[in-house]
Amino acid sequence: MSTLVAISITTAILSGVWGWVAVSFGLLAWAGFLGCTSFFAAPQEGVKGLLISLITNLTGVFWAMVIIAGSQYVSLEIAGYMLTGLITLFMCLQAKQSWLAYIPGTFIGSCTTFAANGDWQLVIPSLLLGGLFGYTMKWSGMWLQAKSQPGKANATLTSRAN
């Protein structure tokens, strides 16, 4: 079985599980899928990729809340747009730090927060659990693929998960 087919199977199964978990715990299913997507698109593999995607998602939530809070204190609409531009500058400049260099992850966290009307208390656990589900989808898919090829099972799985 190819890696793509194996990851597709486990992603399909765990997507259904995520939907149930999100509804059961009152989380945003779509936000969790964004956290999952953020992990899958991260520039690093394994746990490091998961941590980078989660950290940048959380900084995006922070920056969105700065924009939301700051916009409440300006009376001119144009000033709110200028604040958004300024904060966007900082969102990009933070990428000078290696753990914050995944700019799309930052924008995923920010956009998720805006889409949820600033409800960061709901966005954060949804993004975090979604990222963990993404990691689990990929890890379990690699496990399934390795099990389908008995000669390489343990060495392949261990090297890819880290």
Strand content is under 5%
The largest sheet, given as strand count, sense and whether it forms a barrel, is:
none
| Distance between the amino and carboxyl termini | 22 Å
Average pLDDT confidence is: 92
Radius of gyration: 18 Å
| Structure classification | mainly alpha
Can you count the helices? Answer: 7
Shape: elongated
InterPro entries: DUF1097
Transmembrane segments: 20-42, 49-68, 74-92, 122-144
Keywords: Membrane, Transmembrane, Transmembrane helix
Protein name: Inner membrane protein YcdZ
What do you see in this structure?
With 162 residues, the protein is mainly alpha-helical. It has one domain. Helix content is 79%, strand content 0%. It contains 7 helices and no strands. Helix 2 packs antiparallel against helix 5 (103-115). The model has no long low-confidence stretch (mean pLDDT 92). Keywords: Membrane, Transmembrane, Transmembrane helix. The chain crosses the membrane at residues 20-42, 49-68, 74-92, 122-144. It comes from Vibrio scophthalmi.
